[in-house]
Amino acid sequence: MAVKRPTLAQLDQVALDLGIHLSPEQLSTYNTLLQGNFDAYDVVDEMPDFLPQVSYARTPGYRPTGEENKYGAWYVKTTVKGAASGKLLGRTVVLKDNVCLAGVPMMNGASTFEGYVPNVDATVATRLLDAGATIVGKAVCEYFCFSGGSHTSATGPVHNPHRMGYSAGGSSSGSAALVAAGEVDMAIGGDQGGSIRMPASFCGIYGMKATHGLVPYTGVMPIELTIDHTGPMTASVSDNALMLEVLAGPDGLDPRQHAGQTAKPYTELMKEGVKGLKIGIVTEGFGWPQSSEAVNDKVRKAAQWFTRLGASVSEISVPMHSVGPAIWLPIAAEGATQQMMKDNGHGFNWKGLYVTSMVDHHAGWKERADELSETLKITMILGEYFIKHYRGHYYAKAQNLSRQLAQAYDAALADVDLLLMPTLPITSTPIPKPGAPIEEVIQRAFEVLPNTCAFDITGHPAMSLPCGLVDGLPVGMQLVAKHYDEATIYRAAYAFEQAGDWKSI
Q1: Known catalytic residue at 366
Q2: One of 153, 172, 195, 201 is an active-site residue; which one?
């Protein structure tokens, strides 16, 4: 089918949109000259798209209701059986619903995206299946993943298995809830501001945001190339390490990845123990205005377990950590507004797999923007203001400052092996009720970010592990390591897990 040729009026309007003023004679000349270019587009249009092959039989599945979806965490249940052998044989995995699984509906928490059915499998889905896992469905996530709370999905809130009516965290809300409830063995989450680690903390499971690019993001709906992460969420450290072994490494299709990023035998390396490790408790991770003293006390108490296990634990200051959220904000707000929304998810200027069917389907949001979540709308308004009035200056400056922030963490990590702090400054909060004030909706979405978001812009690996309960709700402890040193995080996390029941701290 030939591409539609513009009328002279359409061509004139395109020029005016670019600030170009053409006389009638110029317009006619341009139109004539452009015809050969339109012919080239016809050639591209007629060629089949070049997409990865889809293997493994599957059905579209169904959306469970009632007791089968007690926590509101399932978007689709299906069964895609993987290879007959492999590291994950017999394990059940749910994918966050921003991850493409060909032939299975994908909503990404958004009413404007409902009805999309991918025609490709994300690399992480293929690797799980090749390793023998069974993918059992898609987990609800927040509206285009823009919330640290679990109250913004168009399908309704996701409840915390530890207490109904309370947040499971976001944006990988369903992934965390299903693992915590024991309904699946493992889950894939996504993380641009903490969206693996935040729900892991609220739900009392293990969530790893590996070094930026270590796990290929191919086939996952992009938000912002420089902060996009995807990775494992599990009920145990050993499962998390095993999952990362399967997921990590280059796929040749993701511009976030670099040469030399390969998986390591994390399940073996994690058993080396923590004797001799130096762990720095980051002072600035405990001093946020919203920080709960009960959470701070629980994390500090948990940190002392490492002393008993033979590690050296000391206080360390990283002053720049306190401005991490401020540096993250222009990158997240302006970058996501431009790439995920205005550029329909993929944008331009990078090589790799473009899911063209997603680009086409997502473009419909522009006619339905009033349906977007309050959290996304306010972020887009902020981002667009600075794009329009400051030409992307603050996005660019924040990217420069993110390198300085990375150097500050690297300097601290030159003296210690791991940084330690609360994953979140608080425990799970009540889910805002229908019709709640916008102020409450926004607060519950973004109040949990301060200790997680900085490591999305610096790319350091960071993991949340459960370390106690406050009034029956889990507390998360975050461990951060040098780039590509996930193995040391797993060493500490595994030793901590084996030392005793985290709920007893």
Answers
A1: no
A2: 195
SS3 string of 21-90? CCCHHHHHHHHHHHHHHHHHHHHHHHCCCCCCCCCCCCCCCECCCHHHHCCCCEEEEEEEECCCCCCCCC
Could you give the C-alpha distances from 482 to 210, 415, 416, 487, in angstroms and in order?
10, 11, 10, 10
DSSP state of 341: I
Other CB atoms within a 10 A radius of the CB of residue 505 amount to: 19
Per-residue confidence (pLDDT) for residue 191, from 0 to 100: 98
DSSP secondary structure letter of residue 116: B
* Buried-state track 361-370, b at ≥16 Cβ within 10 A, e below 16: bbeebeeeee
Q: Which candidate in 96, 138, 264, 482 is catalytic?
A: 96
| Average pLDDT of the chain to the nearest whole number | 97
Catalytic annotation present for 195: yes
d(CA 308, CA 302) in angstroms, rounded, equals: 11
Task: In whole angstroms, give the CA distance from residue 248 to residue 484.
Answer: 11
| C-alpha closest to that of 133 among 90, 101, 97, 96 | 90
Q: Residue 1: which pLDDT band, with cuts at 50, 70 and 90?
A: low
Third-level CATH fold of 66-258+270-504: Amidase signature (AS) enzymes (3.90.1300)
Given the residues 153, 167, 171, 402, the one annotated as active site:
171
Strands 92-96 and 74-81 come out as unpaired
Structure tokens that stand for 92 in this block:
């059940």
**Strand 186-190 versus strand 92-96 pairing type:** parallel
Q: Three-state DSSP class for 122?
A: coil
Whether the bond between 147 and the residue before it is cis, its omega within 30 degrees of 0, is no
Tokens read off for 370: 């009033």
The three-state secondary structure class of 371 is helix
Residue 36 in tokens: 């050969």
At position 164, the amino acid (one-letter code) is M
Helix-, strand-, coil-residue percentages of the chain, each rounded to 5 = 40, 15, 45
String of DSSP letters for 185-217: SEEEEE-SSSTTHHHHHHHT-EEEE-STTTS--
**97-142 pLDDT tens trace:** 999 999 999 999 999 999 999 999 999 999 999 999 999 999 999 9
147 is catalytic: no
Alpha helices by DSSP H, listed for 92-153, are 123-130
Residue 443 has φ and ψ, to the nearest 5°, of: -60, -50
> Which residues touch 331 (CB under 8 Å, ≥6 apart)?
224, 226, 227, 395, 398, 399, 402, 457
Q: Residue 483: which of 424, 372, 406, 415 has the closest Cα?
A: 406
Spell out the domain ranges in the chain.
66-258+270-504
In angstroms, the CA 406 to CA 428 distance is 29
Residue 274 structure tokens: 């923590």
Condensed to tens digits (0 to 9), the pLDDT of residues 157-202 reads: 999 999 999 999 999 999 999 999 999 999 999 999 999 999 999 9
